[in-house]
Amino acid sequence: xxxGASFIKPGDAKxxxxxxxxxxxxxxxxxxxxxxxxSRLKGILKKxxxxxxxxADLMGLKAHRRRFILDIVYKDNPPFxxxxxMPAIPCRKCGTSNAVNEDNTExxxxxxxxxxxxxxxxxxxxxxxxxxxxxxx
Length: 137
Ligand SMILES: [Zn+2]
Prior knowledge:
Elements: H1 23-34, E1 40-42, E2 48-50, E3 64-72, E4 80-90, E5 97-99, H2 105-125
Antiparallel strand pairs: 1-2, 3-4, 4-5
């Protein structure tokens, strides 16, 4: 299967019944804006990374994959968690991990969204009153 697309299997008995076009953009917005796990970017021509907590300069530090667990509340669904591995720069002053948006970050996030979508499936599908029959389960 393609990365992050495993929840839409062709010929699956349950074709993305809980399809919700707003979900992906919503999660992206959570990760990049509302949850404030990203480093602070300053500068106009050349963006420099700064620690989101103590404002220390993160230049010259390498990003490493780090696991972030985000609490998400989507519409009126019960809160759930998104488990995501993103490149992050650890601050040498305060130790805070600052997620950074690198080339492959969005791909990683898309995978995480697909997973979250999958785990949310039961919850979301329960909302569609016309189509709640679980086949073969
Ligand atoms: Zn810091």
